[in-house]
Amino acid sequence: MLGPQDSFVLYDEELTRFTKVLETLLNNSNAASAFLIDKNGQLICAVGETSKLDTTSLASLTAGNIAATGGLAKLIGEKEFSILFHEGEKDNIHISIIGGRIILVVIFDQRSSLGLVRLRVKKSTAELQIVLNDLITRTEESQKSGASGSPFAEITDEDIDNLFS
User: Which position among 42, 91, 148, 156 has the lowest Cβ density within 10 Å, counted as fewest Cβ atoms?
Assistant: First the structure.
């Protein structure tokens, strides 16, 4: 069984499903953009108004934020804070942890409200958890069958030597 810190292979089917859930969340919440990030700070997918954002930095900083607040949670006897909210002058960020493995980030402005975003995130979280569970199951089955899922798994030392000789 994959633990929360173990990596998983992201297949096209699950990526498409994740993206569809985010698109529905975006439309139903009037948010500006939504992102899925793994706990290592890697962007999984993004929808909405993302062209003006440095999504790589956003992903890294969000994962760092989750790690930092996780430390705060432990200090007061909590496992983690599963939902975080940051309010700005124009934009707000709602962050939630899904299945202890992925982070959902929703950026919204005055076109929406915290209440609406929280309501829509709650519904989307259940759908994202289903996709995540399917992905974990698929990764575990792949590992059991001997396929590592890595595109480099079939490369041998001999192949590398032949490439550079």
Answer: 156
